[in-house]
Specification:
Elements lengths: L14 E12 L5 E12 L3 E4 L7 H8 L7 E6 L2 E2 L5 H11 E4 L11 H6 L12 H11 L15 H14 L4 E5 L7 H6 L12 E4 L2
Parallel strand pairs: 6-7
Antiparallel strand pairs: 1-2, 1-4, 3-8, 4-5, 7-8
Helix pairs in contact: 4-5
This protein binds adenosine-5'-triphosphate (ATP) and magnesium ion.
Length: 211
């Protein structure tokens, strides 16, 4: 990685994500410190894979970055905005506008068709309804799932569900794409078809990239 401290004076700050000493502790007996003072910076155009054994805190870290969870302590700047103190509504809008996310367990709505699930990505964003179905169908084509658009998610294989979730993440026009084990269920050909894991390891545990 380039040495970011070498950035010249007057050059714009290209940080998309800046975490400073972020901790997340889950209460209980005993409490679990899933994240301990994590500091991390991701610039525009960066592609990053996070790897670690089960239970090492990858999903808790992604949940914080995607604004679904708040750290117990520390600072998280998204495009220069301090997010830890923002009210829930502002965090939801920021997420809808800026972030696409593929969950480890997909989170597809069972009572909606595949294409409707993909369309939901735009509901909290800025784009209008016009052309939404066409954009969703194009995203499904992009991951090789156009022929399953009308299916219910529970009729899809694990790999197909994963691709539907990837299509949904691609749709929102997000500047930041976060993926929690996005390609674990895909064969190597479809791993390449899903335009996520093109660099780095072919099966990253977690990754994010700014397109
Ligand atoms: N919502 C939660 N409530 C309470 N504790 C949690 C929660 N999420 C995570 N933890 C704790 O944090 C630890 C690390 O989280 P997690 O197991 O999700 O990490 P991971 O690296 O994503 O693992 P995996 O590779 O299995 O997905 C867990 O073992 C658990 O103890
Ligand atoms: Mg996980």
């Amino acid at each position: 990685m380039p040495d970011r401290r070498a950035r010249g004076r007057g050059e714009p700050d290209r940080a998309v994500i800046e975490l400073t000493r972020v901790s997340r502790e889950f209460p209980g007996q005993p409490p679990v410190r899933a994240l301990r003072e994590v500091s991390l910076r991701v610039d525009q155009g960066d592609y990053l894979a996070i790897v670690g054994p089960p239970g090492s805190g990858k999903s808790p870290l992604l949940n914080v970055v995607v604004l679904l969870d708040r750290p117990t302590s520390g600072s998280y700047l998204l495009n220069g905005v301090e997010t830890t103190t923002l009210p829930d509504g502002a965090r939801t809008r920021l997420r809808g506008d800026r972030i696409g996310f593929v969950f480890q367990s997909f989170h597809l709505l069972s009572h909606r068709s595949v294409v409707e699930n993909v369309m939901l990505a735009e509901v909290y964003g800025r784009r209008g309804r016009k052309g939404r179905r066409e954009r969703a169908l194009a995203a499904l084509e992009r991951v090789g799932l156009g022929h399953r658009a009308g299916f219910a998610p529970n009729r899809l294989s694990g790999g197909e569900r994963q691709r539907a979730a990837i299509a949904r993440a691609l749709l929102g026009g997000a500047s930041l794409l976060l993926c929690d084990e996005p390609t674990g269920n895909l064969d190597s050909r479809n791993t390449e078809a899903a335009p996520l894991a093109r660099r780095g390891t072919s099966r990253p545990s977690s990754c994010w990239s700014r397109r």
